[in-house]
């Protein structure tokens, strides 16, 4: 089947198998390997991307379901060499160790802060429930998101 | 010790820019043209004879390039060796082939392999393979496996007993007979699944022209994997290159040699094409090692004043279906040697039975043996305190090894390097406001609310060493680490380290060390790791050894470089080397600071070699293999405060305080992060995670849907603090921080929950303390 | 996993027994059965699609009836293999006449799953198995009602 998607601002048209998962399309066809795969039951959230601005687990969608959509992956988050405040927060607050869950975690946080610019710690912990991290114990991820929230509020 | 400006600074990590922008170099990101995808057919039975394998349907599928059974690979892959041959234990080795030939011994054992053009076809082909099994009775429980008449995994290993290890120090029977208090309990330290977020995988590329195999794989110790790959494939080490630059977490699970990596290597060699194999999470759960799984019978002898006079342990360790790479060392040395913990216990008597069962093999998982020892001791000391009506803090204080007795030789033969155990206890008591907390606890009980305070005053062993001791323990390797420091003509520095960090941040902390030692800018230091073609040799990253051992190698290599630079500078400045001082990256004549050369100027001269002392070679680099004189022993006190709802069994975390002493700290931000993550994993064992098997050997918690690794909302924030007692074992005075949290937190949490339930007369519940288990325990006591 | 329960059908015991052991009835009433062929006395081969939670798969296997003791009891063993793993079940079915027109069916057995299926679906197995058994009996009851 033919699909046309815009990923990180670039429009692509490809013939894909109907059963091809979106995450495999991004990784194997577009070579955007920043979107990771950590499970096969949609629990871990490592594959989270923004689909029309909303965070989705790209392993739960077929590529054909994304036909016509606009997708942002971790590679497209920084603009003109400027890190997104959430990326900056993860760096500043040591919100990552091995870095494997990080792209998905960051994309989830970006979506969440659009909807809730001034979250409590509890709201942040709830918002990232669909993303698993095995290294950090989440404490510094929470701080990273708080940092980003503050920065985005004062910056915009 | 190098106390200069970067040591101790919370510098942001230099690994982060690539990882937060999606540009990490994880194994599955590497693409090579012509790559075929490999998938493994795994046994759904825990114990069965393979009667027949029909691969015809799979072979006929479009896009399938080859199918291999165990028989097809017999000549291409030798059995996997075990690398920890513990002496005097009647150790029986389990012949283990990457792909089963006659019999499968656990759910997940490989039975056939498919190579195809893409991953979807490979998966279809795996499902199209027909395997006929003759199902055999299975045994899952290690105690049952030793009983007469139990199913036998190997004809040549009676009663499934792989080894029986003993460590008997002192006369336990005598202290037991004299004891004023005797306690005997059975404790279960249940099975866990490491769950590194990146599953394991490999991309093997054999070049038929050059005869070289390059393999990218998820490895904590690439050189060890190169050695083992050489052993199983027959290729010389000189023809194998292992690359593991970015690895998405390991926690011990990426130390061993596994089937997948070696099959990929063998098939790439067979077909002359790159082969990629990336396991699914469900494969990861059955075919990557598990951890813990002890049943322990513990006897504690004590006096009425709380002094512990002896500990006796009989432990049954579930080894799974075969002995994984380092597995025999985990429940023996790493467990038994630490059975006195932080206490001056004179008599230790330990018997460990390593038992084979029809389950996934176990091996080192974060803490590896030390959590099992610490949990046992910290749990028993709480039970003893309650028996004697003593405060859990005070009974610990009573038994601590006092700070004036360091270095302290334990009955098990270790030498604890340095310590002040009471200081961490005092600091933690202060941070939780202990006296007030106890008062609050009493008041709340009046209102029918149950809060509990749990302690864990642990000591653990890091940076296992020296190599001579490793040899005496039967470890088939040395436990040193290597570093090469190469200064370029411009004064920029490349460091090649044998450590292979995969989240621990040594690209940053090692650069801090080098910048300090050589007085060069942090930005001028490049850290290279995880490539056997670039790093001379390395033993890898595990057991909290990288900073204490790998960092020490690095500092020693830097000092060699500096010594040479100083001689060159002295020659050029026409003074003797002793007349030079070194500050802020510059050599200068003592008393005449204007006469000097920067380190960079010296580096250039070293390469120009126009005017060098006669006995000095051009160039500026040094390699050091650091073999420490001893292990390091971090310690600390963790206090957990919980509230338990007896109606539902739910545990709420009110406070968690960790006061650790890991010696000097290079980067406090990174150490805090290690402690957080460690606590999270240990806490999860206490209340959430459990690798459950049914009686037939089916893993019930075989996916992230059922195995409860904690989500953000399931964990509290931790208060972390430190005391600093440097170790004399290495020049930096650092001990290691990777596992302290995991070792300490499990008993702290369990002790807190049991303390909360004290009014119900509950003295112990085996982990994990799920709402159901707590609710049942409360029900039993209330009825 | 042990599974047990009972089901009451408004029909006489002999008739219920005959229907329960009739291959046509089994084929039409066992949920998900796509194909059932007799290969020996009291032994059938079948293909069956089962969905448990997120996992769905087609199993091919055998149904075997044994210890047939009309109209009181019989044993039934089901064994299937498929893409998601294997499933095995073994149980005894007993019929008690409550009166001439009412029969209570009491069943008791063991169900075992293996392979990836077991890891993902085990937690939901009890509920699913029970529901399938009830669907089977209610289908039998409907058929008997229709034929009566």
Supply the key terms.
heterotrimer; A: 156 residues; DNA polymerase, domain 1; 5 helices; 15% strand; C: 148 residues; alpha+beta; Alpha-D-Glucose-1,6-Bisphosphate, Chain A, domain 4; seven-stranded antiparallel β-sheet; globular; 2 iron, 2 sulfur cluster binding (chain A); oxidoreductase activity (chain A); (2Fe-2S)-binding protein (chain A); metal ion binding (chain A)
What does this structure look like?
The complex is a heterotrimer of chains A (156), B (783) and C (148). Chain A is of the alpha+beta class and 156 residues long. Chain A contains five helices and five strands. The mean pLDDT of chain A is 97. In chain B, a hairpin with a 4-residue loop joins β9 (201-207) and β10. The model of chain B has no long low-confidence stretch (mean pLDDT 96). Chain B has three domains: 32-136 and 200-278, Alpha-Beta Complex (Aldehyde Oxidoreductase, domain 3), CATH 3.90.1170.50; 291-464 and 630-782, Aldehyde Oxidoreductase, domain 4 (2-Layer Sandwich), CATH 3.30.365.10; 480-626, Aldehyde Oxidoreductase, domain 4 (2-Layer Sandwich), CATH 3.30.365. Chain B starts with 15 loop residues before the first helix and ends with a helix. In chain B, the strands form seven sheets. Chain B has a seven-stranded mixed β-sheet with strand order 3-5-1-12-9-10-11, with helices on both faces. Chain C is an alpha+beta fold. Chain C has a single domain, classed as Alpha-D-Glucose-1,6-Bisphosphate, Chain A, domain 4 (2-Layer Sandwich). Chain C has helices spanning 13-20, 23-29, 116-147, and strands at 2-9, 33-40, 43-52, 55-69, 73-82, 85-99, 102-114. In chain C, α1 crosses α3 and α2 packs across α3 (116-147). The model of chain C has no long low-confidence stretch (mean pLDDT 85). The chains are: A alpha+beta (156), B alpha+beta (783), C alpha+beta (148). At the A-B interface, α2, α3, α4 and α5 of A face α1 and α19 of B. Chain B: Pfam families: Ald_Xan_dh_C, MoCoBD_1, MoCoBD_2. Chain B: This is Xanthine dehydrogenase family protein molybdopterin-binding subunit. Chain B: It comes from Thermomicrobium roseum. Chain B: Residues 21-137 form the Aldehyde oxidase/xanthine dehydrogenase a/b hammerhead domain.
